[in-house]
Write a structure and sequence with these properties.
single chain, 62 residues, mainly alpha, rod-shaped
């Protein structure tokens, strides 16, 4: 039944609604990505390594 018309269903309107929802989802995803913090700005591995080593832990880089 894939690709066949269903009686009483406006397939063009349905396709438009699906496309609109997909576009809204893409905009929402982009907005979330833009709101994410810049980890390289806030996380300096050398500072954290030194802080951990000062507490007695050892840091091994992979």
């Amino acid at each position: 039944m894939h690709g066949e018309a269903v009686a009483g269903v406006d397939t063009a309107a349905l396709a438009d609604a699906i496309a609109s929802a997909a576009q809204e989802r893409e905009h929402a995803d982009l907005a979330l990505s833009a709101a994410a913090p810049d980890i390289t700005r806030w996380f300096n591995p050398d500072v954290w390594t030194k802080a951990l080593e000062n507490t007695g832990y050892t840091v091994t880089r992979r």
